[in-house]
Amino acid sequence: MNSTQAPDLPRVSIQSADFDLSAEVAALRAQDGRVGAVCSFVGTVRTGTAGSAGSISSLELEHYPGMTEKAIEAMIDTAYQRFDIYGVRVIHRIGLLLPLDQIVLVVVSSAHRAESFQACEFLMDYLKTQAPFWKKEQTPQGAHWVDARVSDDAALARWGGKYSGSNG
């Protein structure tokens, strides 16, 4: 593990408040001259899903406090074992979100871009399929819980299958 992340910068934040991408990137790479690459992913609320464009009026995210953070921390530990990275920051929002709102941020720093890109994608694939979050979409037809997508499971499979970290 190459982590020298600032001790005052948590690796995981679950919050209702929005986040600032540039501030998070700056904090992750601050004072670390080894960093040559930073990769980030920001997920946002869409107005629709395949076949139902423009129909989502809101998205409500719930989580299991304590368990969610622990599961994401374990995913980050696995990323440090698999990739030569220096720092990781994951922010996931909860509560009521509207179309275009930011939902999730994953930022990874490393010496070279390939490691940052791979670790960022790895973490996002695990977050989509293994992190204990529940999503409820509000549409003109009413509210419904969002099921996992086959494409998310396929993305996870390319990393070697189901997450095997300790999350409980």
Q: Please give the order of strands in the largest beta sheet.
A: 1-4-6-2
Number of DSSP helical runs: 4
Subunit arrangement of the protein = single chain
- Report how far the terminal alpha carbons are from each other: 23 Å
CATH topology: the name is: Aldehyde Oxidoreductase, domain 3
Q: Total strand count, please?
A: 8
Strand content: 25-35%
What is the count of distinct domains?
1
Name the average pLDDT.
86
CATH C-level name: Alpha Beta
The secondary-structure element order is: EHEEHEEEHEEH
**What structural class should be given to the helix and strand makeup?**
alpha+beta
Name the shape in a single word: globular
- Main sheet, how many strands, which sense, barrel? 4 strands, mixed
* Unreliable parts: 163-168
Radius of gyration: 16 Å
Description:
The chain is globular. By secondary structure, the chain is α+β, with helices and mostly antiparallel strands. The protein has helices spanning 21-29, 67-82, 113-130, 150-157, and strands spanning 12-15, 37-44, 58-63, 85-93, 95-97, 102-110, 133-139, 142-145. The strands form two sheets. The protein has a four-stranded mixed β-sheet, sandwiched between helices. Strands 5-3-7-8 form a four-stranded antiparallel β-sheet, with no helix packed on it. Helix 2 packs antiparallel against helix 3 (113-130) and helix 3 crosses helix 4 (150-157). It is built from four helices and eight strands, in the order E-H-E-E-H-E-E-E-H-E-E-H. A hairpin with a 2-residue loop joins strand 7 (133-139) and strand 8 (142-145). It has one domain (12-153): Alpha-Beta Complex (Aldehyde Oxidoreductase, domain 3). Residues 163-168 have low confidence and may be disordered.
